[in-house]
Amino acid sequence: MSYFQNVLEIAYEGKQSTNPLAFKYYNPQEVVAGKTMEEHLRFAVSYWHTFTGEGADPFGGKTALRPWDRYTGLDLAKARVEASFEFYEKLNIPFFCFHDRDIAPEGDTLRETNENLDQIVAMIKDYMKTSKTKLLWNTSNMFSHSRYTHGAGTTCNADVYAYAGAQLKKSLEIGKELDAQNYVFWGGREGYETLLNTDMELELDNLARLYQMAIEYAKEIGFDAQFLIEPKPKEPTKHQYDFDAATSIAFLQKYGLKDYFKLNLEANHATLAGHTFEHELRVARINGVLGSLDANQGDLLLGWDTDEFPQDLYSTTLTMYEVLKNGGLGKGGVNFDAKVRRGSFEPEDLFYAHIAGMDSYAKGLKVAAKLIEDRVFEQVIEQRYRSFREGIGKEIVEGKATLHTLEQYALNNPVAKNESGRLELLRSILNQYILGDL
Fold first, then answer.
1. Residues 6 or more apart from 300 whose CB is under 8 A from it?
2. What is the DSSP letter of 385?
3. Nearest to 135, CA basis, from 90, 157, 103
């Protein structure tokens, strides 16, 4: 059966098109900076928002109307698989992502839960045999169930920790079976509400131990996916341990995990941490751990994780600038960890939202490639820091300067005048590129 009868395959029709069910900028086979758009962007659909999301928010329940709503239990899970692959095919998207609890319901016991997963994973595997859409990454939902009230890898309850380990083991096996290119660790409950009852050192040590176990088991079963940590500063816990890129990098370095992990960075999580998305990407890039993106945007007038589809061209351009400067995302991709608004409750809205996000990133890719080709910012930065390429500046960079030599230089030379950073001019130039005929 068809779950989206009113939608045909989404095609590229160009920026003059008025067809709402067509791409205006995303042309999968168009070559930009030596690769096709599809190869650069590696788009993915998030299973949770697209097929299990119901339009609820903190103040109200379900609004979404979905063709699979008439089913329950495993029948509902199977219907969602059928609908999902129809959606991927019509959107012509190369990847999807899921949590274990997105695809199959929990049973009364862990054994029953795993049996439910086995049925659905077998079904997904069959669909993947004839589909171009592959698994970008999978992960474990170790935050929704009440057993994880106090965390999973950072819980104060050893029995819960053991359950989390068992759930993680099963998820790694699923990733292996479905040939996932990455595996994501998102610590939704890995944090604390108050230090008055928290042994922070033990919790962080235990979290690192869980990650190390995952590394060892992945090697044991031959699962060669890239491991990713997804930072988030708060919500649901008041302070989560993977607060931002810099905090996560420090954690990986302390526990000797940096060679095994990269970061899956989300735009809305960046703003919750008080950063721009491009800041988080730059921090990850210069530290060699930029792995994958969760593409969305937040509403800056709301103080929570709204997960809107990305349509801010300023942000998508600067995002793709960092990705291109990184040499791409490797095994990673651009996953739409985004949901339609509560008032956008019809099935077609799922297509409109993804088209908008894909077009926004395609436009950002083209503008970023042109900025790099023209060396717009590189020239500015080289000029701004030119004093470090000669004389005392060069000695500083080469590690030859000491406080003695700096003092002698300062005593014998007047301080050169600072030059304007010309921020407004640079933003104007960026606007010209974004508004240009690309």
1. 271
2. T
3. 103
* Residues tagged active-site: 99, 102
What amino acid is encoded at 188 in this protein? G
pTM of the model: 0.96
Contact 139, 183 (CB under 8 A): yes
Nearest to 230 by CA among 104, 133, 97, 322: 97
CB atoms closer than 10 angstroms to residue 435: 10
Number of H helices, E strands in the chain: 16, 14
Q: Please name the helix (run of DSSP H) or strand (run of DSSP E) that holds residue 11, with its range, or none.
A: strand 11-12
Structure token digits, residue 43:
């788009």
Q: What is the largest CA-CA distance in the chain?
A: 83
Closest CA to 362 of 128, 129, 33: 33
pLDDT in tens, the chain (438 residues): 899 999 999 999 999 999 999 999 999 999 999 999 999 999 999 999 999 999 998 899 999 999 999 999 999 999 999 999 999 999 999 999 999 999 999 999 999 999 999 999 999 999 999 999 999 999 999 999 999 999 999 999 999 999 999 999 999 999 999 999 999 999 989 999 999 999 999 999 999 999 999 999 999 999 999 999 999 999 888 899 999 999 999 999 999 999 999 999 999 999 999 999 999 999 999 999 999 999 999 998 988 899 999 999 999 999 999 999 999 999 999 999 999 999 999 999 999 999 999 999 999 999 999 999 999 999 999 999 999 999 999 999 999 999 999 999 999 999 999 999 999 999 999 999 999 976
Q: Reduce the DSSP state of residue 222 to 3 states and report it.
A: coil
344, amino acid identity: S
**349-372 b/e with 16+ CB inside 10 Å = b?**
bbbbbbbbbbbbbbbbbbbbbbbb
Q: How far is the CA of 41 from the CAs of 11, 308, 330, 433, in angstroms?
A: 17, 19, 11, 20
Q: CA-CA distance, 159 to 140, in Å (whole number)?
A: 17
Distances (CA, A) of 82 to 101, 103, 159, 232, 317: 17, 11, 36, 32, 34
34 in Cβ contact with 372 (< 8 Å): no
Residue with structure tokens 């999807």? 96
Residue found by looking up tokens 């096709």 in the block? 36
In sequence order, what E strands does 53-173 have?
95-99, 134-139
List the structure tokens of 37. 């758009």
Rounded to whole angstroms, the Cα distance separating 196 from 390 reads 53
